[in-house]
Design a protein that fits this description.
Length: 322
């Protein structure tokens, strides 16, 4: 029953992230097609979009302003979609961390607080998106540009940067917690059962997929480009939005294939490793042989065919030798 609930949760998460990321890209596609002048003749400087000099008479200022207002509306919608997708993607990673750490809630408390703070910053960022859209409408009515517009644009960008930086911190922290858990479990297994048992947990690919490090890397690249060359920010931004849906899907696929870290029988909890290896705990699993039946015991432990096993059991019941 519990597994069925988890499967439904993972399925709902996958479908929702796919819908959000696909809608984000569709809106971006519409934005490019419906605002050709704004797209081709605008560059970003000091937290705001600046128009290039127009050389065509049809590209008058009014047309460009209308496209700018429409772009602001679409950006507001995209920021809302991105905020919701971040909650789901980060929430899934935190949930996986909770499962891998045997549901110890104190482990994921810092990540949860960071996720809550990130969500608050995203909501404030959307608020300033709405304010910018409102101020553009004031300009569209041929009124003077409101002095609050520049401040709203500045706050909008500052909040966006802070949100992504905190999102990176959330993902990095959760990633470290997951990797630590896998590493500790691997070391414990190798200490008790031998080095060969921990080979699968030393796979770098497993750690990357389980921890969602791909998404963390995309956030880091986004922040670096935002500082060094904001003109090209759309490239890592769109890539990041898609990885926001891809990285959790990789985790869900591994869990669905029963290849998650916690799904392996070779990964017991720290508290019961020694108990599992105590000879007394295995007594019931080994047959008891009467004196003089050493040959039967040897044949039983090495035989692979069912007829040999049955013959040995019959001889034991009669108290004889094979």
């Amino acid at each position: 029953m519990g597994r069925d609930i988890s499967i439904r949760y993972y399925l709902l998460t996958t479908v929702t992230l796919f819908a959000l990321c696909s809608t984000f890209m569709f809106i971006d596609f519409v934005k490019i097609l419906e605002t050709p002048d704004f797209t081709a003749n605008t560059f970003y400087s000091d937290y705001s979009s600046v128009s290039c000099p127009s050389t065509s008479p049809e590209n008058n200022d009014n047309v460009r302003l209308i496209e700018t207002v429409f772009t602001d509306l679409l950006v507001t919608i995209q920021d809302g979609l991105s905020a919701l997708a971040q909650v789901i993607a980060h929430g899934l990673l935190i949930y996986r961390c909770l499962i891998i750490w045997d549901r110890r809630k104190w482990v994921v408390m810092p990540s949860t607080v960071c996720l809550f703070a990130t969500t608050v910053l995203n909501l404030l960022d959307i608020y300033y998106d709405v304010e910018i859209y409102h101020f553009r409408h004031v300009i569209l009515r041929s009124d003077p540009s409101p002095p609050q517009l520049a401040e709203a644009q500045r706050m909008n960008n500052v909040l966006a940067e802070a949100s992504f930086a905190l999102g990176l911190a959330t993902n990095a922290l959760t990633t470290v917690l997951i990797v630590i858990r896998v590493w500790l479990s691997t070391r414990e297994l190798e200490r008790t059962l031998g080095r060969r048992v921990g080979i699968r947990y030393r796979s770098a690919l497993l750690m990357v997929i389980e921890s969602g490090a791909l998404y963390s890397l995309s956030l880091l690249i986004f922040l670096i480009v935002n500082v060094l060359s904001p003109t090209y920010l759309a490239i890592p931004n769109n890539a990041m939005q898609q990885l926001m849906g891809i990285a959790p899907t990789l985790i869900i696929v591994r869990v669905g294939m029963n290849k998650g870290v916690e799904a392996s029988r070779d990964m017991p909890r720290f508290s019961n490793v020694d108990e599992l290896l105590t000879p007394a705990s295995h007594t019931a699993h080994f047959p008891v042989y009467p004196p003089g039946t050493e040959m039967i015991k040897n044949e039983f432990t090495t035989a692979k065919e069912g007829d040999k096993y049955q013959r040995a059991e019959d001889e034991i019941a009669r108290g004889g030798n094979v």
